[in-house]
Amino acid sequence: MIASPIQPNLYSVALLIFGMLALFGATVATQRHNNPGAGWLVGLMAAMGIWSLGYCFEILLDSLGQQVLMAKIEYFGITTVPLFWFLFAMEYTGRGPVVRARKLYLLGLVPVFTLIMVWTNELHGLIWSATTQIVHEGLNFLTVEHGGVYWVHAAYSYILILAGSILVLIQAIKTRKAQRNQAIAILVALAVAWLGNIIYHTPLNPFPYLDITSFTMTLTGLILIFSLLRVGPLDLFPVVSETVLEGMNDGVLVLD
């Protein structure tokens, strides 16, 4: 009897749905391409989609070699999600010109270096010092031991995510009610991703050997899209609206 090259499971189905929703979110964001931050939002949602779809096939495929290949593909999303989030937060809070002035490419050095290390890992083991499989619930799950470069990337990613979160939090505190609600919704979306990542790294994970971060990350993206389109569109960014209104000498009557 020939073994099947795939191992059908509900986790992969869920990840496939989440990944497609993330890519759909990226498509929705392109409709606002002329507004501040929209470009970074497209990149953020696309990165989340790549991450989820890569993990979908990692769990779906049976062999160790195939799973490692899918894990490498996931890193195109894993390494860029924190970067796109930070750039989005900078643009959202009116600090986009600061990033451009300080050479945008410098922020991408660690993600690019990490990707190079991922795809050449067999030569040095600095991302994964060991890759094995463990059987759980009848499925082969990829398990890894992380090398030194992985932790450098992880630290850099957490710094970017935290910095972006602080910027949005400050914006939520100092802006008017409508924009404050929008900023709070963005922070709630990010908290979902943080919670998923924390649970994954603790014994509290209800799905052992399953990285639930990719699930919660996509939920974050969808909440983000909804909050920006429902609570307040991207063309009503708080810094922009405050600058326009505060620069007016005449009275303003808002009808709609």
Q: What does this protein structure show overall?
A:
With 256 residues, the chain is mainly alpha-helical. It contains 12 helices and 2 strands, in the order ααααααααββαααα. Strands 1-2 form a two-stranded antiparallel sheet. A hairpin with a 2-residue loop joins strand 1 and strand 2. About 4% of the residues have low confidence.
The whole-angstrom Rg is 20 Å
The unreliable regions are: 231-241
Biggest sheet, strands in spatial order?
1-2
- Taken in chain order, the helices and strands follow as HHHHHHHHEEHHHH
Helix fraction by DSSP (H/I, runs of at least 4): 55-70%
Supply the number of helical segments: 12
Please give the largest β-sheet.
Answer: 2 strands, antiparallel
Instruction: Note the beta-strand portion.
Output: 5-15%
Q: What do the pLDDT scores average to?
A: 81
Number of strands: 2
Which overall shape is indicated by the principal axes computed on the Cα atoms? globular
Structural class by sheet pairing and helices = mainly alpha
Distance between the termini: 69 Å
Keywords for this entry:
single chain; two-stranded antiparallel ribbon
Please give the structural blueprint.
Blueprint: H1 10-30, H2 38-60, H3 64-78, H4 81-92, H5 96-101, H6 104-107, H7 109-119, H8 121-124, E1 128-136, E2 139-146, H9 148-174, H10 177-200, H11 213-231, H12 238-246
Antiparallel strand pairs: 1-2
Helix pairs in contact: 1-2, 1-11, 2-3, 2-4, 2-11, 4-9, 7-9, 9-10, 10-11
